[in-house]
Prior knowledge:
Blueprint: H1 6-28, H2 41-53, H3 64-76, E1 86-87, E2 94-95, H4 96-122, H5 125-136, H6 139-145, H7 151-170, H8 176-191, H9 198-217, H10 230-235, H11 239-256, H12 259-264, H13 270-283, E3 307-315, E4 318-324, H14 328-354, H15 364-367, H16 371-388, H17 404-423, H18 427-452, E5 455-457, H19 458-464, E6 467-468, E7 471-472
Antiparallel strand pairs: 1-2, 3-4, 4-5, 6-7
Amino acid sequence: MNLDTETNQKLAIRGTVVVCLMAIFLRFWGLERFNLLVFDEVYYAIFGNNYLTHTPFFNSHPPLSQYLIAIGIWIGDRLPFGQEHLNAFTGSIHSTFSYRWMNALFGSLIPPLVATLTYQVSQRKSYALLAALFISLDGLYLVESRYALNGIYLVSFGLLGQILVLIATKDRRMNNRGLLLGSGVAFGASIACKWNGLSFLAGIYVLVAISKFWVSMRSSEPIDNPHNSLLDRLARIKPIEIAIGLIITPIITYFLLWIPHLIQNPQPNLIDVQFVMLNYHKTINDGTGVHPYCASWYTWPLMMRPIAYYFNEYKPNYYYDVHAMGNPLLWWLGLAAVFGSIGSIGRQIWWNSQQETIEKNVLAPIRALDPHYLGVPLFIVVNYAVNLLPWVPVTRCLFIYHYIGGVLFAILGLAWFVDNWLRSRSKLWQSIGLTTIFSVAAAFVFWAPVYLGLSIEKTQLSWRLWDFWIFNWI
């Protein structure tokens, strides 16, 4: 199946636009459902309102996401629509729409950001379309976009930071230093939403280090043109650009974003508040008896313990239920795609080691790697690892939403494999690719009632909330 013809390229662009419009609809439709505070809205929506009322408070996370929620409340109160459902749960009278719409907006930006990122990595519009489609069909991303929570903001800024780095390295005739400064600001903003936003920047650090190591082993330097591989492009970034754009700028951005909070809450001061937050998280007990939905990091990829954000039996045998859970098929196939990406890298290293023409030394198989073949798998594996592995030593109570960064790259890995299957000359692999797409879409439709909080009958709900073997979804 030739996906690179001009007609198919245009169809991919149009398809991506349709997917993004679908994502907008799903995130804004029925946004006022449940005129109350859902799950951690009891923190973030209230904190956002506290900025508007100049009420002192302590927050265990950096402040940017709450600034954005506060801005959303301020604008939402002045809109000519969305005022039907009011409550005072935040400490002031606001509509539910006012403290949720900013999340919906940022959640709507993630599919086009994902499409842009994957195109920059691969130069394939078909891959960009599939990546945008799959992330739009994920339940966790949908749920996090419909309530006043903070995970969706750190992902949005993290993606933007990586996109700007890749654009900056694509063509040296561009204002790459300005773009790298912009990426530093985006990364700083991601960290200022939540500290684990640092993983998006760490992914770039690791990829740049690998790229420079690989290029240093080659007999010739990469050609300076916009069509180089991802590794060649990242290897171009100069040490001074890394220092200023990707180290100093994120740090400055992070601390500058604390200023509005510190004006209202001067104690603890800028430095002390970092240690106060760290000690707060360190002193939270381990998962035992702390919260019924605590889930260790190794349970996240299999989605063994999602979270019930809201549950109410509004009449006998009929419920409203909102579960922060992914699209099961998407997550499980995404995990397989991560292992498949690792296998792709290992397979080429092994194949190169078997070639008689390769110089017989330990680094020769690595030197001979094809950067065009490895760019996307390496991008997937590195970013998945830096988003998941930092949680391994953490002993405090963790939740499945902490996997929001890691699962993103697992999903991008699945989209990459499906794109390759569709490009295969084999009708069997093309059929597998199409079957995967329709199966993921069907799974999304099946679990949509617990993503969107739709009315659902008890038996139907039990079909969606499994409670057997290693899975405990209730």
